[in-house]
């Protein structure tokens, strides 16, 4: 059986209200003003339950989605209603424990609570992130908020990926240029900037999310509705009461592939165009360098890089974020953030190195690099 199939082997669903408890769950009692009324709030186990693809869900806060337009439509209608009620009650209990009201939350998050789309664990993570001035500012932007609520280490992973990219790209440029490194510093700068943009998008686009997208208009096309219902990461854990079909998860790969093709092609166009402009300027000033430096083919290199990001980078970063980090490392090390960050750093560094090797083979295969140019390849993601 393939590795992709084994990721979605169904496990028995986890009920947040069952009576038995384990060492990974804690029960809180909150007494409300009404007479002899006690509500029990259970924190979910940090170990995510793997939902089946055709239907069902789990109670992990690691994934994104809602119940609109095919997103989260799995199981019976009664099951969806029960999950929504449970999510709503949990969220309200977390707010009560924190002394917060619905009016103090962002509108989209408050609406999601009312609709029963997010469990209490998401609200708990939101309240924790709000304590940081930087995170509170970042959560003003929907894209960052959706990703931080799914993974509170998302921003750290952006720094890891971009930091590794800057170091490896600069080191590779120096290895390739040697004594000409400082003479061609402007070319190096353009290459590094292009790499940073690509690295950021490779973390941002395939990252798991907690989505608050509104429903599409009834007049929206079938294709728009389908991709609207797809998760941002093909392997991400679904929220309690939410599920994704196999087709929707495949759609996530296709949608991110299209976005990364656009990002890769555009960034390469800008980078190679800037590089050629600097090369031509240098040739105009120093006639002796005319035969030493050749212009980079802009169109073929850019399209080839876009295809590489859409296929190789897309699949590797989908698996890295959705399987290795969210499904394996996070459940095991959720209470050891420093160790988790360290392991993520090592894995992402290895992934970048693997990407450089694959790029060399691919560039040789499509003919955009000559053998002598590949002896000291520039690392890419």
UniProtKB/TrEMBL annotation:
Region Disordered, residue ranges: 1-20, 35-86
Keyword annotations: Chloroplast, Membrane, Plastid, Transit peptide, Transmembrane, Transmembrane helix
Listed Gly residues bias regions: 54-81
One cellular component term from this protein's GO annotations in UniProt: chloroplast membrane
Location in or out of the cell: Plastid, Chloroplast membrane
Location (main, coarse): plastid
Bilayer disposition of the protein: Multi-pass membrane protein
PANTHER family reported in the protein's UniProt record: PROTEIN RETICULATA-RELATED 2, CHLOROPLASTIC-RELATED, PROTEIN RETICULATA-RELATED 4, CHLOROPLASTIC
Family note: Belongs to the RETICULATA family.
The protein's name: Protein RETICULATA-RELATED 4, chloroplastic-like
Gene source species: Gossypium mustelinum
